[in-house]
Amino acid sequence: MDKIYISDLEIYAYHGVFSEEKMLGQKFFISLELTVDLRSAGKTDALDKTVNYAELCDVVEKVFTSKKHDLIEKCAEELAEAILMKQPLVNEVKITIKKPWAPIGKHVNYVAVEITRCWHTAYISLGSNMGDKEQNIREALKLLTSAAIKVTKVSALYTTKPVGYTEQDDFLNGCAEIKTLFTPNELLAFMLEIEHKLKRERIIKWGPRTIDLDIVLFEKAVIAEEDLMIPHPRMHERMFVLEPLCEIAPYQLHPVLGKSIYELKGILAGTK
To answer: What is the 3-state secondary structure (H, E, C) of 10-63?
Structure first.
């Protein structure tokens, strides 16, 4: 992938742990490495096919000077989020913030932090079998759209029979593709917050619920933790997951089973 570099943009700001730093301020140098597909810009010579450097520098300066933080680590996170949200052509950004006047009582050229952040693709299953099921799912999708998430594809909704605990109403199920800046654990925590807002109660295992949100896939990640399993351990056994997922990502590979969603759906249906 192609790169755009901005080196040592000088900005005077008021970040630091000490009160004098927030009162007097100091200079910082910010460098950016942007991962962007520049082929279209190179072929067309059109500014709207690339990143406008002047506009980007204005965004960086505005974000960096709008608040006072103790840590430049916090500043870097805010800059990364702002750049990725405001610059749709940017897939990944590396940010280096140098602090040449850091009050550490030693002679150094500067202290610095460097972070790299990018968009991740994940697939979420959604289900509801209480109240207005469709509205519950629509509201969950609305709440998913945040400063760190973009919902990019949504499947149709399918009526399915309950699994496990059968003495309950039918479910309405669907899947969504998202682009997110969250890590898998951060995404899980955010989804649990949404379930709480939509009044999900965990009383009966696999029981009725206003909303059920699960991370089905997170890029090629394979995670086995007490509270987080990716890929979802039962996704290949659940047609209510595979059918809507196949609609939006039929050729997405299961990172453990090595088969596409289309193939897994066919196997479960008995056609492959």
So the answer is: EEEECCCCCHHHHHHCEEEEEEEEEEECCHHHHHHCCHHHCCCHHHHHHHHHHH
Q: In CATH, what is the architecture of 120-269?
A: 2-Layer Sandwich (3.30)
Q: Which residues are catalytic?
A: 99
pLDDT in tens, the chain (272 residues): 899 999 999 999 999 999 999 999 999 999 999 999 999 999 999 999 999 999 999 999 999 999 999 999 999 999 999 999 999 999 999 999 999 999 999 999 999 999 999 999 999 999 998 889 999 999 999 999 987 999 999 999 999 877 755 666 788 999 999 999 999 999 999 999 999 898 766 555 555 778 999 999 999 999 999 999 999 999 999 999 999 999 999 999 999 999 999 999 999 988 65
Q: What is the CATH number of domain 2-118?
A: 3.30.1130.10
Q: Where in the chain do CATH 3.30.70.560 domains reside?
A: 120-269
